[in-house]
Structures are given as structure tokens and as C-alpha cells.
Amino acid sequence: MASTKLRLLLDASITEPLASYIAELVPSTILSRLTLGQAAKDPKIAAFANADRRTIVAVDSDFESYEVKWGVIKINGPDRADDRCLFEIFGAFWRSGLRAKCKARRTFLTREGVRIHNGVTIERRWHPKPCTKSRRTIRLISPSSQ
Fold first, then answer.
1. Listing from the earlier edge strand, what are the strands of the sheet with 139-141?
2. pTM of this prediction?
3. pLDDT at 60 (0 to 100)
């Protein structure tokens, strides 16, 4: 897998199985609950992410009201408890070629596609959608192909 300078900090909203999947894909990943403690509040997590130049990954919307200089990636799945599906969505994004664009931005990953915004919005749709029975490679459809 190609290297990126994107360094991840997983919020406590990321379950242990999902955290393990992501850390296997992105070895530089750290977990906020291990680094800052399970009870760490969102302002402390955001401050740590800013100081350590990390992008926060979460499945909740807790970081909407905090400044996170290096960005936030929010993963939404059809079933928040389905770690395998959430990882499939994250993995498809990681391989998409868009991860460099999410640095210092708000990124939303869903079963439908990717939305990155901070001034200019970038939107792409998956084909086929993650979390389906299709075994084909998931790719993004460019806006002109939609």
C-alpha cells in the first residue's frame, strides 16, 4: 500500500474490531483511548490531534464544534454496529486516491460515497457500493460519470 503523510487518531467511538482493522491497514494509527484514556473528553482529543498533527477518525459527530487542524474523517454505515462494513467503507476510501485531499478538511464516508469539504466540496460515489455482496473492486465514479 502506498504511503501517505496522513496520521490517524481513532476516537473512542471506533470499536475495538474496527480499530484493529484500520491499524492493520494504517500502521501509524493510534487510539485515543489508549493514548489519552477511555474517559478523555472531545476537547482533549481535538487538542492532542492538533498538537500531534493527526486526523481524527470517528463514527459520531462529536468533533463538529471543535477546530481540528489536521481534519476529521467521519464514517457512516447503514448499521453503525457492523464493523466489517464500516471498514469496507474506510478501506475503499483509503485506496481511492482521495486521502491526501482530506488533510485539514472534514471528510464524510458513507456507503454511498465520499464527501470532503473545506471551502470547495469534493463528492464521489462508489461503484459498486461497499457492504454489498458484490465481489468486484470498489471504485469511485468521477462527477462527470454520475
1. 30-31, 8-10, 55-58, 72-75, 106-109, 113-118, 120-127, 139-141
2. 0.87
3. 85
